[in-house]
Amino acid sequence: MKEKEGLIKIVGSENVFDAPDILEKYACDESFIHPMPPEYVVRPKDADQVQRIVKWADETLTPLVPVSSGSPHFRSDSVPSTGGAVIVDLGGMKRIVRVDRRNRVVMVEPGVTFAELQPELEKEGLRLNMPLLPRISKSVIGSVLEREPVIMPKYHWDIADPLLCTEVIFGTGDMFRTGSAAGPGTLEEQWEVGAVQEVATGPSQADWYRIIQSAQGTMGIITWATIRCERLPKLEEAFLVGGSTLDGISELMHWLIRLRLVNECLILNNCSLAKIMARSWPEEYETLREALPSWVLFFCICGYEYFPEERIAYQTQEMMDVARRVRVDPVKAFGAVSAAGLLNLLNKPSEEPYWKLRYKGSCYDIFFLTIQDKLPELIGVMSELAVRHGYPFPDMGVYIQPIVQGTSHHCEFNLFFDPKEEAEVDRVRKLSTEAVQALMARGAFFSRPYGPWADMAYRRDAETTAALRKLKRIFDPNNIMNPGKLCF
User: Fold this and answer.
1) Fold type of domain 96-231
2) Which of 42, 104, 424, 429 has the most other CB atoms within 10 Å of its CB?
3) Per-residue confidence band for 3, with pLDDT thresholds at 50, 70 and 90
4) pTM above 0.90, yes or no
5) Domain locations along the chain
């Protein structure tokens, strides 16, 4: 009860929860992690309350698990790994602090979702470089902190993009601002002289934000962040290219990005694309999938304020020249699946129910980074393992997203299953464990290791593990921030 009294003093009794039905919602997610209910759920309203919660936890040695997105959760990072933990639910911190159109920067708090932010940006002629169909409850800050791949590689300059500056409360309770937000002066004083917190590096020449990004809440809690935006195009022309293999379409994708001809650019297999486009199950899904090629490249050419028609015309001509050279045929539709219809969906969060849950009710994702040349080999590894475990590979979703100007690729396998069928759950659990090990052995880079992947990844790199543990002792010496995650 002393713990609860301490939290009530900080946020008020109406924002501290210990009812079993509420705690149960935070005890597990869509992954295979062992359920662990928290002791309390606390919902702060502002950065001051967050800092006071962290200082209280540091004094009482209480584990904290920060959560910014709404349910459902998928990757085990928001489930406590130890008993007695307190969930810090940041979903109520929903301020869109500032939108700067001239510099294409927005400052938001962690509870702001894509569905809430996109309409406000559109009023200013801006948009986000979106991940692929985020769920409607997904926090924008949660997404950029997790380094979820974005669908416009043309504007993806660094692995950290589009994250810029942050305000973080470290595990010591100290508040720290990264990048140009560090100063000099307060935020308001910086705004008065035209600064907009758009430089990610700093203070000094250190990339402090890299300590926080992909840390799964093990270093501290973000209370706001600035995010780079892009201009809204005036005209858009979308295309699809199909193939029975990746050869031709991946080569076209390489040249389209290298020549900077396209904005959105990604590859889906027919399973994922049909699941995204279908609105009834299973009839429409099966019909769409049968009409689609095995692999589909989607891309979009855009025109902006000045001479949009001329821009689209010459870039389309260049695109068609490249397509002829690599012997593929861009089209506007495959049957009922149109490029324009897909583009309309990709500009927004996923409609409800979330697209990965529509077919069977649950989904387990395996994702990693690789280079273009290794994609066929790694997809082959996954296909062989799926057959061995009795999981039909054609029923598995595959998503390939070029990142950082196309220099590397995010490759993602979506294992759909019925959570009520124990045989299916067991099959996917065993397949996923073996697949991660096999893919690592063949060169797949798991840059964001969640749950059991973390042990596999960090065992392979003792020096990085030692360095991260040193940083942990500096920024969270009492190990109160999401203990048990990553290599902590």
Assistant:
1) 3.30.465
2) 42
3) confident
4) yes
5) 2-89, 96-231, 235-346, 360-441
